[in-house]
Amino acid sequence: MIATHNLLSTKRQELLLLSNQKQSLETEAEAIISELTTQQHDSNVPPIGIDTPLVDSEGYPRSDIDIYRARLLRKRLHEIRNDHKELERRIGNGLLEL
User: How far does CA 52 lie from the centroid of its chain?
Assistant: First the structure.
């Protein structure tokens, strides 16, 4: 009985940790999406965008945005989405085990 209780307690703690990690990823993703989709206050330059082209109509890098920053943010957003899916899977499996 005590061993079962300890196992459930450990599993609950693990699920809480995974849930906290998931919440942290969601917060980071929201911040990145906000940065990518918000227009700069002091200019008429359109926002970078989540999936808009980083090159102009002639194939040159856009001069109105920081290409390196855009690629870095987009890359991190994809990583977060993949990690988020994995955490959701692990949380779902953990809940089934309870």
Answer: 18
Are 47 and 70 spatial neighbours (Cβ–Cβ below 8 Å)? no
Q: What is the mean pLDDT of each run of 10 residues along the chain (98 residues)?
A: 68 94 98 92 81 93 92 98 97 90
d(CA 26, CA 32): 10
Tell me the two tokens of residue 15: 């699920």
- pTM assigned to the model: 0.84
Q: Which residues, including other chains, have CB under 8 Å from residue 68's CB and lie 6 or more apart?
A: none
Q: By the 8 A CB rule, do 62 and 54 touch?
A: yes
What is the spatial distance between Cα 10 and Cα 63, in angstroms, rounded to a whole number? 53
How confident is the model over 57-84, as pLDDT tens digits?
999 999 888 999 999 999 999 999 999 9
Residue identified by tokens 């082209």 is 53
